[in-house]
Amino acid sequence: MIQVENEQIAGIPVLHISNSENTDKMLPTIIFYHGFTSQKELYLHYGYLLAQRGFRVILPDAKFHGERLLNANPEDQATYFWDVIEANIKEFSLIVNELINSGKTDSDRIGVGGVSMGAITSLGLLGQYEEIKVAVSLMGSAYYVDFAKELSKYAASQGLTFPYDVDERILALQKYDLTQNITKINNRPLLLWHGKKDDVVPFAYSEKLYQTLVEESLADNVKFVVDNNAKHKVSVEGMLEGVSFFEKFL
């Protein structure tokens, strides 16, 4: 039976999903991140499918989302979009360390994945933590600096103002931008899934990343899956691609 627990790990609200028969055992573990303006509960289907295959799955609520929404509105979430992603990246080690110390997570079998903002988070994490063995990006971008510039221009065109220096904020993203030091992928398995008609996170970012990895001879364990018809929504086939990828490599 698949067990879902709403709990806190390192003070972060999460859904903790596992097969009840193995819940107290040391398991390969996947931290899976939700999308922008969403929350952990809306990604339970990923957790269920992965737990069926023997994984421990942790679905955290991001800063200003879900149980951590506080008084934030969609404008606040947009204003502090990169702060949310940065918080995800910093909090990853807190979650994983607590799970390892409790004996519930195999430190040699840790994966990350996510959708949209969660996929962007996952690609940033891949460049920060060597202990990550597998990553799945569903509609993400590793090009933090380029995407941040694009988003800031769009926000300005919509009349959104920022209570901070935008150029300084973008500059600070360089340390999380995987493409600034592409060799950090270190031949780890990575799935890139993206809809060609995506009108939120441009498909071109995944395409460019894959082409760069191929040119740098870093794509041996990288799989690039294109959905020619999908917009900014993961298809059932895309979801199952992600699940199968974790099952194969983790």
Automatic annotation (TrEMBL):
Keywords: Hydrolase. It comes from the Bacteria. The lineage of its organism: Bacteria, Bacillati, Bacillota, Bacilli, Bacillales. InterPro entries: AB_hydrolase_fold (IPR029058), FrsA_esterase (IPR050261), Peptidase_S9_cat (IPR001375). The keyword Glycosyltransferase does not apply. Residues 87-235 form the Peptidase S9 prolyl oligopeptidase catalytic domain. It comes from Listeria seeligeri. This is Peptidase S9 prolyl oligopeptidase catalytic domain-containing protein.
